[in-house]
Amino acid sequence: MKAITYIPLEKREVASRVALAPLFVAVCYLSEWWKLRLITVFVLLRLSAFLHLPMQGVSGDLISLDGLQIQFGIACTMVDAFFGSIPLLWRLSGSWHWNVARLAAIFGGVFLLNIFRLELGFIALHYGAPWWLAHECVAGIAYFCVFLFVMHSRRNPIVNPPATASMLRPALS
User: Fold this and answer.
1) Which of 7, 12, 84, 104 is in Cβ range 3.0-4.6 Å of 21 for a Cys bridge?
2) Facing residues of 57 across strands?
3) E strands of the chain, at which residues?
4) SS3 state at 63
């Protein structure tokens, strides 16, 4: 077994970032995210009206579609996926302001992806798809897209410039 001092710094950094991800998700769930849930429902109601989908708002976080009432929780905003990705996307070589601006842009992208996946699911549900397909499978694909983005941005030197030249060397496996 290797002693921790023989594990390359890059691998230790990745391991610590991955270990922080569940902690960030747990912190995310300390808030109810009411405003984000309300904004998500508002945007979906407007988009559904534009697409002639018979969706009605029942309360701030509750909608009705074809007689089915759907309540929006924290996971319906994908803010948990965003929070879990923060430790993996944060660049130690970047300034605080650069990182916050970058994360704000990424949050906007996650919000748009979430609206797309929810609306796509509601359209499928309206046209007869079962809940597990219209919601659960579409959500799984959307979360996987976030995962792919995180992995791409960790490896792509254009999106995420390496902190040191040593990170450009190919890994020997």
Assistant:
1) 84
2) 63
3) 55-59, 62-65, 68-71
4) strand
- The whole-angstrom separation of Cα 59 and Cα 143 is 27
In a domain, 42, yes or no: yes
Characterize 25-40 residue by residue with b for buried, 16 or more Cβ atoms within 10 angstroms of its Cβ, and e for exposed: beebeeeebeebbeeb
CB 73 within 8 A of CB 50: no
Would the pTM count as exceeding 0.85?
no
Distance (Å, whole) CA 37 – CA 61:
6
User: Which token pair is 90?
Assistant: 């944060």
Domain hosting 122: range is 8-161
Give the closest residue to 142 by CA, choosing from 116, 168, 164: 116
- Over the stretch 78-118, which tens digit does the pLDDT of each residue have? 999 999 999 999 988 888 999 999 999 999 999 999 999 99
Total domains present in the chain: 1
Neighbours of 68 (CB within 10 A): 11
